[in-house]
Amino acid sequence: MTSLLRSVKTLMPAAILAATLAAVSVAQAATVIRLGWTTADSEVDPYAIAAHYFQEELEAAAPGQFEIKFFPNNQLGNDTDMLQGMQFGTLDAGVITGTQLGTLDKSFQLLDLPFLFKDRAQAHEVLDGEVGQELFARLEKQGLIGLGFGEAGFRHVINNKRPVQAPDDLQGVKLRVQPSDLFIASFRALGANPVPMAWSDAYMAVQQGTVDGLEIPLAVIYANKYADVVKYLSLTNHTYNALPLLMSKQAFSRLSSEQQEAVRTAARKAIERQRAEVAKNEQVLIEKIKAKGMAVTGIADTGAFRDEVRPVYEEYRPRIGEDLVDRAMELVTE
Q: What is the pLDDT of residues 209-250, one digit of tens each?
């Protein structure tokens, strides 16, 4: 009996040590996902909402298997820098402005056609269906995995010259636009003077008067304090701002099939929540923006704006892909 007790006492510390090392090993095995975006880490910023919901849903889908590290507010560079990082495998994931993907594949310019969607329900139908899947399939050839399309809502014009209620009100207004030939063509067709500029430079440019304003979603206006430096917000709803949640193909390929499925499930649930949150926040944001002193107006006639940009559709239809444009147009005109 004494010998047996002595053996048990000898084995217990070893067993405890083994269990401790096993626990440490499991903790160390958590896969780190570095996730970046360009805007503020704010409770109302749509990029940030998408990132945080993805983190929550991934923990629910695969408890303890992943650790997501956030890099907001251009910490890892602008959209172009982050896309290149994901392609090279030095960045794992990002919430990226949809317009930027047009630099990798022209078909993504479909999403930026002005006044294409009458509401977010139409946008969701296109993005969640075959058209959206085809866009992501093309992106995979560029070393990127599309996990889904979040949203920042519709984009609107803000400026320091005058309220915009008709196309003529844009005449000569110098607007920062995303570095996209389609955005430049669209605003030129409306009579504005578009200036392509990286997001990281936009606030200082409007603050210093280098540009009169820019076009931007409501949540981004508020989260990034544009109401402090811009007088007029015009609810033009000219473009639906899709926010793809992307992952590096290299990083995704390193995951087990079970982990890949967990990532896709988490992304799908996160985007569903993110879209609902962004939509819920919009009216509240308009009131908050008004309270900051910004004058808010609607546009008198959407049809007048559509007439002005009709040549843009004709110019970009073959670039984007006629079949893709036709399929999208069928869905938005049903």
A: 999 999 998 988 998 899 999 999 999 999 999 999 999 999
Report residue 103 as tokens: 């630099």
Does residue 12 register a pLDDT over 90? Answer: no
SS3 annotation, the chain: CHHHHHHHHHHHHHHHHHHHHHHHHHHHCCEEEEEECCCCCCCCCHHHHHHHHHHHHHHHHCCCCEEEEEECCCCCCCHHHHHHHHHHCCCCEEECCHHHHHHCCHHHHHHHCCCCCCCHHHHHHHHHCHHHHHHHHHHHCCCEEEEEEEEEEEEEEEECCCCCCCHHHHCCCEEEECCCHHHHHHHHHCCCEEEECCHHHHHHHHHCCCCCEEEEEHHHHHHCCHHHCCCEEEEEEEEEEEEEEEEEHHHHHCCCHHHHHHHHHHHHHHHHHHHHHHHHHHHHHHHHHHHCCCEEEECCCHHHHHHHHHHHHHHHHHHHCHHHHHHHHHHHHC
From residue 116, give the alpha-carbon distance in Å to each of 42, 251, 306: 29, 34, 9
Alpha helix positions (H), 243-301? 249-253, 257-291
Q: What percent of the chain is helix, strand and coil (3-state, nearest 5)? A: 55, 20, 25
Confidence of residue 28 (pLDDT cuts 50, 70, 90): low
Mean pLDDT of the chain: 91
- pTM of this structure: 0.83
DSSP assignment of 297-325: EE-S-HHHHHHHHHHHHHHHHHHH-HHHH
Which element (helix H / strand E) includes 331? Answer: helix 322-333
